[in-house]
Amino acid sequence: MPKVTVIMPVFNTGRSYLKAAVDSVKRQTYQDWELVLYDDGSDPDYLPAIRQVTDGDARIHVMYHTKNHGAGYARNACIRASAGKYVALMDADDISAPDRLQEQVDFLDMHPEYAFVGSNAWMIDDYGIWGRRILEKEPGKSSFLKTLPFIHPSVMVRRDVWNAVQGYSEKKRDYRVEDYEWMMRLYAAGYRGYNIQKMLFYYREDSRSYKKRKYRYRIDECRMRYVGFRNLGILQGHIHYVLKPLATGLVPAGVMQRIKRIRYHVGTDFAGSADIPTSGDIKIFVSHTSGSSNVRVRAPMFCHVMAGSDFQHGEIPKDMLADNTGDHISNRNRFYCELTTQYWAWKNMDADYYGFCHYRRYFSFAPVRYAEDDCGCLVYPYLDKKYGKNYIRVKRKCIRKLRGMIV
């Protein structure tokens, strides 16, 4: 019998997202787990995709229903069908850091006074990490006034605690707020939670997330807040927090998204590992033609390299690599192009996957396959005609100059 059950409701989730989520569970350093996937009424052709993602792993169990009942119902069904002492929550479009389960199991084993444990999280979309959420370590009852003080899918809860409060609400009026309602019931029953102050989770929030937030759900949230605050004994003097969802519901989705991007922005110099876990070791080599550039992302995935180092003047910054070490052709680069960086990286750097870009360009993490041109370049397809013509002219000029450098 596994000690940990990971539960994951699925409803027409993007297949690449689902695969990344399931793969992140498979890569856990803690391996005494089972994963219960519940297909909550997805399209008829979706179930084979789920089975393909499981890849015959006996630890992964798939349940399904032809009708959509909502996340609360799906989570309850998963837990009832599972066996773990601890239940790790997770959504099908999020990613768990490799040490998430180990950290949370160790915490619950050592701290019986806490009913559940969550963590801080990186905020992600299709383009990578755009922010981070640092949560209160030990939320109290009043912490629920402004917002839910836990990232719900990052939580691991004791099974007996889930049983004690009879699981999630399956009422239609709690649709979209069942996580908030459930956690307030836990606190009202005398249970407490804790947030590990480590980045153990990657929480997806993009433009599609805001399109789901219909105004009628705001009305339901007001009712849920009123009941929850009353049961927690924090309602008096805080009616404005009950009505808060009505006000925020009037803010356009794009504006609300922008506000959150500002609030949780991490900047370009955040510390620690922020690379999204992948199935292999990815390195992206960013070519620089000037050591004075301050456009440098501080994440292990990115390697910043001075192109044409043999021809550069001045000291190369300590946080940059140079393409004139080991097996290299830097001395043939008079035009400061990316070719010598690419040659150097392939010959001297170890990775499963190599990516290259220029420091003044954007590296796209979108799950889109762009067509190659006649030079093997992947070209963004939305360039205007004027820029496209100029690109072709410059490319031909570069080809003429590079012919003497081909190795």
What CATH architecture label of the largest domain applies?
Alpha-Beta Complex
Into which percent range does the helicity of residues fall?
Answer: 25-40%
Strand content: 15-25%
Could you state the CATH homologous superfamily of the largest domain? Spore Coat Polysaccharide Biosynthesis Protein SpsA, Chain A
The Cα radius of gyration reads 25 Å
How many beta-strand elements? 13
Report the CATH C-level class of the largest domain.
Alpha Beta
Indicate the low-confidence ranges by residue numbers. 268-273
Mean pLDDT across every amino acid position:
84
Tally of contiguous helical segments: 12
- Structural class, by secondary structure, is alpha/beta
CATH topology of the largest domain: Spore Coat Polysaccharide Biosynthesis Protein SpsA, Chain A
Helices and strands, in N-to-C order? EHEHEHEEHEEEHHEHHHHEEEHEH
Tally of distinct domains: 2
Distance between the termini: 58 Å
Shape: elongated
GO molecular function: glycosyltransferase activity
Domain Glycosyltransferase 2-like: 5-159
Domain DUF4422: 298-367
Family: Belongs to the glycosyltransferase 2 family.
